[in-house]
């Protein structure tokens, strides 16, 4: 499907693997110039750059910690210098860990909330002088923001905060022709993160959905393309559930 995005420029955080990688590749297929970032070098980040080079894509893969103000600012400045104003910002970077609240040190709370919520604040704030007009911001969050999950209070809280931030920013930035929406993802397979309960846990999660299966990263990427495009030109402040009907 052609979303008429050719010639646009997108920034995607957490773009090296899983959902982020699928978003990067989907945007490239649409003719979008892409600046993607990752926090630490990995085989996935190296292979992404190699794949983009092989496709002769207008794309760069940078190292940046989204929770760091300086890194966020440099990411947007570098992206703007390379490809011009940013038409689409996809805040996808995220981390998770599993532990009960009683055992959770403050440093782990800060790490998860810092990446998942503060990271979106830092990158979005840094983007304001570099966004095109109009522009689309898409925040990737999780279905657990609505449903909850044990032994992950930091993760659930951060993802719920993304919904609140999305709704606040859509009202603040709308008059500047900047749309802000969120996607609540369900359990997505092949993301590089496994269920802590293993294959049995993944089967149980699949049975929780109306469709009876896990999602795949490309199904999240397709919704990002929609929200990035003029097909969603009157959609802002929306929180779209892409979870198979949990």
TrEMBL record:
Group of enzyme by EC: oxidoreductase
Presence of the UniProt keyword Oxidoreductase in the record: yes
GO molecular function, one term: oxidoreductase activity
InterPro entries reported for this sequence: KR_dom, NAD(P)-bd_dom_sf, Sc_DH/Rdtase_CS, SDR_fam
Gene3D superfamilies: NAD(P)-binding Rossmann-like Domain
Domain (Ketoreductase): residue spans on this chain: 8-186
EC number: 1.1.1.-
Pfam families for the chain: adh_short_C2
Keywords: Oxidoreductase
Protein name: SDR family NAD(P)-dependent oxidoreductase
Family annotation (SMART domains): PKS_KR
Family listed: Belongs to the short-chain dehydrogenases/reductases (SDR) family.
């Amino acid at each position: 499907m052609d979303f008429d995005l050719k010639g646009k420029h997108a920034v995607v955080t957490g773009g090296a693997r899983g959902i982020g990688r699928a978003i990067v590749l989907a945007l490239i297929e649409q003719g979008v110039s892409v600046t993607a970032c990752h926090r630490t070098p990995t085989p996935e980040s190296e292979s992404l750059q190699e794949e983009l080079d092989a496709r002769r894509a207008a794309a760069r893969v940078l190292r940046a910690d989204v929770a760091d103000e300086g890194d966020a600012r440099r990411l947007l400045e570098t992206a703007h210098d390379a490809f011009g104003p940013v038409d689409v910002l996809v805040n996808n970077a995220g981390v998770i860990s599993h532990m009960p609240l009683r055992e959770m040190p403050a440093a782990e709370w800060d790490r998860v909330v810092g990446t998942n919520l503060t990271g979106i604040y830092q990158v979005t704030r840094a983007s304001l002088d570099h966004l095109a007009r109009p522009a689309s911001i898409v925040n990737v969050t999780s279905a657990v923001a609505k449903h909850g999950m044990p032994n992950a209070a930091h993760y659930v809280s951060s993802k719920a905060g993304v919904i609140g931030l999305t709704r606040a920013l859509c009202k603040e930035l709308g008059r500047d022709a900047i749309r802000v929406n969120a996607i609540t993802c369900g359990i997505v397979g092949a993301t590089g993160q496994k269920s802590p309960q293993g294959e049995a846990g993944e089967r149980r999660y699949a049975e929780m959905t109306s469709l009876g299966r896990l999602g795949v990263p490309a199904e999240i990427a397709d919704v990002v393309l929609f929200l990035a495009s003029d097909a969603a030109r009157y959609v802002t402040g929306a929180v779209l559930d892409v979870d198979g009907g949990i």
